[in-house]
Amino acid sequence: MISRADCLERDAADSLGHLRSQFATDAIDAQQLIYLDGNSLGIPPRTVAERLQHVIHDEWASGLIRSWNTAGWIDLPGRVGDKIARLVGAAPSELVVADSTSANLFKVLHAAMAMVRADAPWRRRIVSERRNFPTDLYIADTVARAHGFELVLVDTGDVPSQLDERLAILMLSHVNYRTGQLHRMGDVTRAAHDAGGLMVWDLAHSAGAMPVRLHGDDDATTPDFAVGCGYKYLNGGPGAPAFVWVNPRHTARMDREGWRQPLSGWMGHAAPFDFRPDYVAAAGISRFLCGTPPILSLSALECGVDSVIAAEAAGGLGAIRDKSIALTDLFVALVESRCEGHGLALASPRDAGERGSQVSLVRATDGYPIVQALIERGVIGDFRGPDILRFGFAPLYLRFVDVWDAVDRLKTVLDSRLWQEPRFSVRATVT
Amino acid sequence: MISRADCLERDAADSLGHLRSQFATDAIDAQQLIYLDGNSLGIPPRTVAERLQHVIHDEWASGLIRSWNTAGWIDLPGRVGDKIARLVGAAPSELVVADSTSANLFKVLHAAMAMVRADAPWRRRIVSERRNFPTDLYIADTVARAHGFELVLVDTGDVPSQLDERLAILMLSHVNYRTGQLHRMGDVTRAAHDAGGLMVWDLAHSAGAMPVRLHGDDDATTPDFAVGCGYKYLNGGPGAPAFVWVNPRHTARMDREGWRQPLSGWMGHAAPFDFRPDYVAAAGISRFLCGTPPILSLSALECGVDSVIAAEAAGGLGAIRDKSIALTDLFVALVESRCEGHGLALASPRDAGERGSQVSLVRATDGYPIVQALIERGVIGDFRGPDILRFGFAPLYLRFVDVWDAVDRLKTVLDSRLWQEPRFSVRATVT
Question: Which is the catalytic residue, given B202, B224, B306, B402?
């Protein structure tokens, strides 16, 4: 049986351990918090505070409008995009930061539908998992209704049965937000392509937490579109701008055909400073930009992305993934050994190779008050109705001893039945 | 003839003069800059730096994910929206902050098209000015093409001739970005309505610089939709989120009919924390929200909006408008008297009642190097091709003496032919 001392030893030997010092953990440490919600909102890198002061004082207040050139604001969506591209196996100039994940998904679904209409107009189905992240489904549902497509939602295991001559687009999250289940990107992409469909990935819960290879071994295993989120494992701050990647074969075709995305704002124009009345799409991925990007939030995102890139010298995303697996395996083992008899079961895949950087537990009843009582005891996870207790493990700043302490407090909450106090049943707006 | 001393006297007597101290002008003062580009990017309020430190340290680093509730992040789009509503003559809960102006225009054009399709399907024209802000035209062009509408662009004087039985939507900027021409919102709205069309206003260059009355005297003079920008006279910072207002008669109808806007992300869902797979639009204006808002940029925007609201005790937007007119009238008078013979002519309306808070000059040639030389002399205006020299007058922080000094430097640049030095002809990316 692993002990707390064993965990401290593992931390001491952790080749990524020094990276925790990048993050503003003082407040967490002072509160003796264990933060297992980095999959919802990463912790700020220490550099953010200074960077934002610089943006406010030196770029905005002093440089003023000139900073679009002199401080490179105009290039930020591409510059930060190129950095994220390194983290998701894409090439430079294939990915930009823009808008929200939802808006970017809207754009790529339009692009995918336009391709399907041109190449295989009989294909009318957008297929996804019923338990995919709801906002992705909301966007897909509206897009499908508006354009004569059909959104088909099935259980995860039934996805393969939907890959037929009716398939237009397969839209999945690389890691499921509820269960943490990790799809094999290459295999699933190949299956969608073999069926004649296009593949759209949402990388919200994988980018920054594991190696992602958008460029597969060949065209068959290389997806068509991807979107992702800046504020989870990329540590970009609340509501950080999102990103969008498009297979360069497709942007080349869009260039040839002059295709424009529906949100055709000035940032995606070929010559925005000519102030022409007519829209001409910029070449390549830049056509997926829309309006003026929020520079303060975008600058913070760059700090967050840099915090992941900083791991490159210590093994990069491969080492991050190894630690992530070690953390989640430890959590599963400790919960199963120390919290037995309390009705908790594993809702995530047991095989770490099929699991993202999170562990979800399921309990038939009272998951909500248990999570609330645990939060009061200083362990922040979250509840996803009706029955999921969700814990994220951000490998850049979590320690093995944090996992031990988290399970120890969970055991206390369960053993003492602390969660049965009525105040823990009152729902807040956001959990 | 007015002298510099006269200007200093006017500043001393200015009832809004004390509001300049709200802004981080130290860097400008140290550079002896005169900033006549607040219509592109406002100066930061002094409160922004501290507010962002608070958001980073206390809300993000310390509150972490809990801050969506405890720091009220979830309410920010509505809370800042309610404040902007006060500045544009709208009621609380009619306006939200979201996304970019371009994305919001996309949403309201979809809403307007849906209404026209239901009520007057023969109407297929979206009418606007050829010289309207290009990104508005880009969005309208793409929307029109995708949905069988026609974008009709005419010269400003020809707009009335387009208000006929074919009109679906009249889309105008309240103040034109090039010339500063101010439309009479009530009269133009009534004319669009009399023709049976819907009225969409872009308030980018008026919100925060003058009283705007979205609620007119009656239904006929009350427009249907409005969008606007956070980073010009609202001082919200580079790329600050934008806003969207919808006539409450229309949102009530949307509620009855369950209408959803195309960017149907989670923030616009009726019950986002139920994590249901199906989309149900939130009631009222909230349905126009999409993805997670960029909290850092949105917090800065609140400081900017507060800087305008702070004028309420000193006469509010009426006093701001009076000062704006005084500043622009002074600029026109000084340019015409002191810079005579240099080929400059007034491109803005001479009547201040028809002019926004900017003055545009036109010169047949060499406008670009003249603006560049002027910038080097510490007067920041901008050039809008092919021939417009544009100067914005943000009444919250500009002084009468700034206007005097700006014209004095312009005169020096022109008299000394400084702008003829070759380096001023090299175009930067953004002007």
Answer: B202
